[in-house]
Amino acid sequence: MKKVDVVLGLQWGDEGKGKVVDVLTPNYDVIARFQGGPNAGHSLHFGGKKFVLHTVPSGIFRDGSMNIIGNGVVVDPVILAEEIAQIEATGIDMVARLKISKRAHLILPTHRALDAASEAAKGKSKIGSTLKGIGPAYMDKTGRNGLRVGDILLPDFMERYQALKDKHLFQLRQYDYQVDVDAYEQEWFRGVESLKRFEFVDSEMLVHDYLAKDATILAEGAQGSLLDIEFGTYPFVTSSNTLCAGVCTGLGVAPTRIGEVYGIFKAYCTRVGSGPFPTELFDSTGETLRQVGNEFGATTGRPRRCGWLDLVALKYAVMMNGVTALIMMKSDILNDFDTIKVAVGYQLGDKQVDYFPYEADDSIVPIYREFPGWNCDICNVRSFDEFPQQFKDYVAFIEAECGVPVKIISVGPDREETIIR
Ligand code: GDP
Ligand code: IMO
Ligand code: MG
């Protein structure tokens, strides 16, 4: 029986998962999302066009691919319906190409309001959430109150909706948070109606049927390993299991059925939202990374915080995910740096550590190793041999530290700007 391959982010999200999944899709029959929701923004560039996907898997633009929204995902019908309409406008038959798990949880309009209320109440210590209702929706899931996609077809869906909404309105009053959800609610029910054209499936059965037929499946992660609810920089994390383990729970795949684990990282590092970021740069170098890298959120437009590559954190993510192949993205953004730094350890008070500790907070001082930059444009490179020696040395160091080969290198946002070794 075939295994499920996985693509997931090793940093704080936005590593370039959308691009890589789109590039890899021709090798796969099925692409499936297993966690997260519309907090994700996955960008794809091809044929001179750009698309940003939030809930729909990034295989959707490739002929012959089946795309599954798995049980571990949380779905906002407004955002999903908008996304579907945009893709349909390109001529793609979405009903044929997209299946949605009955077990995926719904994000209600009041989940969004609760997200905003919780953030407002936290004040300065806010998470910096995308305000898409992710945290409250997963809280209702684990609290055993949630509504699921399959519930849409139940005769008492409206009563269930109203009961959960009432509970949320009560909570919002506790927050003393004034919010008008009526307008969004109307759109929400329109979204719910439009989703009824799609087949709601037992996605775990569908995935296993495909595996039994020797079909190839790629699981597409959202967010990044350092935003994982268990092992990320808690509480500044998202509310789902972003690690490889999330594929098992979010798609219903046994651990023994996981195949290749592709771990994606940027040649430097970014983060959007609050929380520790040991290698963050507050100087002109950080600003250069943001401008050259166009580091502004694909979902919220917020400027992303930028810094050097953090190998301590990367090695931790490689270990926690069982990464079998690394993918380095946005290598071209470092074209014009004389010196490139990489964190190889942390100074934590009076001790030095080379692992990602529980105490990973703002008091960490990174210990850097410096590399000479390549100082030339690598955007047109299409085979590994063509890269300058300084670039090859940078890659070799990362491979040696992580103990995993870098198998794909990205030198631009377009599908074509990719080197597969
Ligand atoms: P995701 O959330 O992991 O899918 O990543 P995002 O789409 O949020 O952010 C990655 C951004 O970098 C997008 O704007 C991509 O188009 C862009 N991108 C991806 N790979 C490369 C690359 O190798 N070079 C450059 N310059 N941009 C890239
Ligand atoms: P993709 O899939 C980057 C961040 C938010 C915030 C924290 C919690 O595009 O890589 P949430 O809305 O999930 O409650 O926010 O997580 N965050 C992301 N950062 N990329 C993402 O997704 C993110 N999804 C959530 O900024 O700090
Ligand atoms: Mg993104």
Explain what you see.
- The protein has 421 residues and is an alpha/beta fold.
- The protein has twelve helices and 20 strands.
- The strands form five sheets. A ten-stranded mixed β-sheet has the order 9-7-5-2-10-1-11-15-19-20, sandwiched between helices. Strands 14, 16, 17 and 18 form a four-stranded mixed β-sheet that branches.
- Helix 2 crosses helix 7 and helix 4 runs parallel beside helix 6.
- It is globular.
- The two termini are 26 Å apart.
- The site of guanosine-5'-diphosphate has 22 residues, from helix 1 and strand 3.
Strand order of the largest sheet: 9-7-5-2-10-1-11-15-19-20
Number of strands: 20
Query: Tally the helices: what do you get?
Result: 12
**Assembly context of the chains:** single chain
Q: Can you summarize the main beta sheet?
A: 10 strands, mixed
Low-confidence stretches: none
Mean pLDDT equals 97
**Which small compounds were modeled alongside the protein?**
guanosine-5'-diphosphate, 6-O-phosphoryl inosine monophosphate, magnesium ion
Report the end-to-end length measured between terminal Cα atoms: 26 Å
Q: Report Rg.
A: 21 Å
The percentage of residues in β strands lies in 15-25%
**In percent, how helical is the residue content?**
25-40%
- Broad structural category: alpha/beta
Q: Which term fits the overall shape? A: globular
List keywords for this structure.
421 residues; alpha/beta; 10-stranded mixed sheet; 12 helices; 31% helix; globular; binds guanosine-5'-diphosphate; binds 6-O-phosphoryl inosine monophosphate; binds magnesium ion
